[in-house]
Each structure stands twice: as structure tokens, then as C-alpha cells.
UniProtKB/TrEMBL annotation:
Record domain CN hydrolase: where: 1-240
Ranges that cross the membrane: none
CDD domains (alphabetical): nitrilase_3
UniProt xrefs under InterPro entries: C-N_Hydrolase, C-N_Hydrolase_sf, UPF0012_CS
Descriptive protein name: Carbon-nitrogen hydrolase family protein
Family according to the record: Belongs to the carbon-nitrogen hydrolase superfamily. NIT1/NIT2 family.
Entry keyword annotation includes Hydrolase: yes
Keywords for the protein's UniProt record, in alphabetical order: Hydrolase
Gene3D superfamilies hit by this protein: Carbon-nitrogen hydrolase
Annotated stretches, region: Disordered: 250-273
An example molecular function term from Gene Ontology annotations: hydrolase activity
PROSITE patterns assigned: CN_HYDROLASE (PS50263), UPF0012 (PS01227)
Annotated organism of origin: Aeromicrobium endophyticum
Taxonomic lineage from the root: Bacteria, Bacillati, Actinomycetota, Actinomycetes, Propionibacteriales
SUPFAM superfamilies xref list: Carbon-nitrogen hydrolase
Length: 273
């Protein structure tokens, strides 16, 4: 599976963000033969200050942001996963990942389960949590599980996705910078890869406020490619048999005793990739 990770710094001007995304994605073409392009959490519109009204900025799933992502997915002939704030019937929106297929159709959504009520911040004051329903989609014949930012700190979600068949975890994020935060980001991404013997594809916001350092880790937990803090596009090829080879040598999933595999309640896209 050939992937591209788009690292960018979003703003609270949604129209400007769309223009910036279009400019950055112009560096990709259909000739790149990409299977998956991943943009960060909140690519549509940044979180802004703690009192910034995200409900006013939120868009429906057929709004301008998803229309842009659909047009780019069709142009590139690829699946794109990107983060937005989704309008609801409630006063508060969802923090949502949209997955748009190569034909421009919305294949699935994942609404962030674990809201960032940590490090002195309270995301739940501004957003609704999604249902506890792991989401796995098929991309180029590979099962891909979706997580968002703070979800990374909860290994049980990654394990539910893997029990539902995921062999790659995709983690869009806006990982706030600060003491220890870059170490946490790298360590947790590598840990999720190692303990689940999966690829991890993490696209993060960069700039001054966020940690950046989008990266891809292989099923051994080794970092294949990593960005710095600025706007950048990373590319990586994820070999189909990496997961099987790693699990043959390190069958830790099969050796579990405290929490044996069980059917997970997951939502899967039935549409072709």
C-alpha cells in the first residue's frame, strides 16, 4: 500500500485552509499511484483558542470541506482520510474523520471517542464524543483502522481495531506541543505498532502550536519516515506481507491469555477501494 502523509498547520479560517490544502495536495498527482492520503485532525478548521466557537465553524458531511476532499480523491484516484468538525443537531459538533474513496464518495466516518480532557485542556466542553464503535475500512485490499490524536493514549481502542481485522492504524492528530509531548507522541505510536504488530500511519498538524513529526512506523515499531515541524508531505510503501512476517516471528497477539481475541463491534465500509 502506497501512502502519503500531509503535514500542515491549519488556521481558524476554513476557506484559507481549503486553499492551503489544495496548494499542498497539488504536489501529488495520479501518477504517484497512491492508495491512501492522510491529512491531520482538524484540517478543515483549527481548534483555535479555548473560547473559539467550533460549533459555528462546523460543517455538514456534504459541506465545502468534504467536497474539496472528494474532488482531490477523484483527481488522485486514491482514498483520503482527513479531520473536520462535523455539524450535529446538538449545540456541540463531533471531531470527525472522513474517509473519501477514489470515486469521490464518502466511504465512512469516525467520530473521535476519547476527547482531550487532559494537560489542562477540556475538549469535551466544545465537542461531543463519538459512539464507542471502532471503524475499519478496506484500502487497496488492506484493512485500515481509524483513530484520532488522544485516542492514541488508549491501547484498548487500537486492540479493538486489530481484533476487528485492522493491519494498519491511521492516526490523524493535532498533538499539542509541550514538555514531554514529542517523546509521548513517538513512543505511543511505536508502542501501538509493536504491541499489535501493525503499521501505524500518523499525520499531524505542524507549526508553532503542535508537535508535528508525522511518521510511519512498521510492525516492529521502527520509524520508516518522519517529518519535522513544518508543512511537508511524506511518502511510504507498506509491504503487504510485513504484518504476516512480523507476526510469524513475534506471535504476541496469538499468545494472549488475559484478554483472548473476541469479536469486536466494528463498523466496516463495504465499498470497494
Amino acid at each position: 500500500m502506497r501512502v502519503a502523509l500531509v503535514q500542515l498547520a491549519a488556521d481558524i479560517d476554513s476557506a484559507a485552509n481549503r486553499e492551503h490544502i489544495s496548494t499542498q495536495l497539488a504536489g501529488l498527482t495520479a501518477d504517484d499511484a497512491l492508495d491512501l492520503v492522510v491529512l491531520p485532525e482538524a484540517s478543515m478548521h483549527d481548534f483555535g483558542a479555548a473560547d473559539h466557537d467550533l460549533a459555528a465553524a462546523a460543517e455538514p458531511l456534504d459541506g465545502p470541506f468534504v467536497q474539496l476532499i472528494a474532488a482531490e480523491a477523484r483527481r488522485l484516484g486514491t482514498t483520503i482520510v482527513a479531520g473536520m468538525f462535523e455539524r450535529t443537531g446538538d449545540d456541540l459538533p463531533f471531531n470527525t474523520l472522513v474517509a473519501v474513496g477514489p470515486d469521490g464518495s464518502l466511504r465512512t466516518t469516525y467520530r473521535k471517542i476519547h476527547l482531550y480532557d487532559s494537560f489542562g485542556y477540556k475538549e469535551s466542553d466544545r465537542l461531543l464524543p463519538g459512539e464507542i464503535e471502532p471503524v475499519v475500512i478496506d484500502v487497496a485490499g488492506r484493512p485500515v483502522g481509524l483513530m484520532t490524536c488522544y485516542d492514541l493514549r488508549f491501547p484498548e481502542l487500537a486492540r479493538e481495531l486489530v481484533d476487528a481485522g485492522a493491519e494498519t492504524l491511521v492516526v490523524p492528530a493535532a498533538w499539542v506541543a509541550g514538555d514531554h509531548k514529542l517523546d509521548h507522541w513517538r513512543t505511543l505510536l511505536q508502542a501501538r505498532a509493536i504491541e499489535n504488530t501493525v503499521h501505524v500511519v500518523a499525520a499531524a498538524q505542524g507549526g508553532d502550536r503542535y508537535t508535528g513529526h508525522s511518521l510511519v512506523a512498521d510492525p516492529w515499531g521502527s520509524i520508516v519516515v518522519e517529518a519535522d515541524s513544518g508543512s511537508e508531505i511524506l511518502r511510504a510503501d507498506l509491504a503487504a506481507d510485513d504484518v504476516a512476517r512480523t507476526r510469524d516471528v513475534n506471535p504476541s497477539l496469538a499468545n494472549r491469555r488475559l484478554a483472548p481475541p473476541r469479536p469486536a463491534a466494528s463498523r466496516k465500509s463495504s465499498l470497494p477501494s
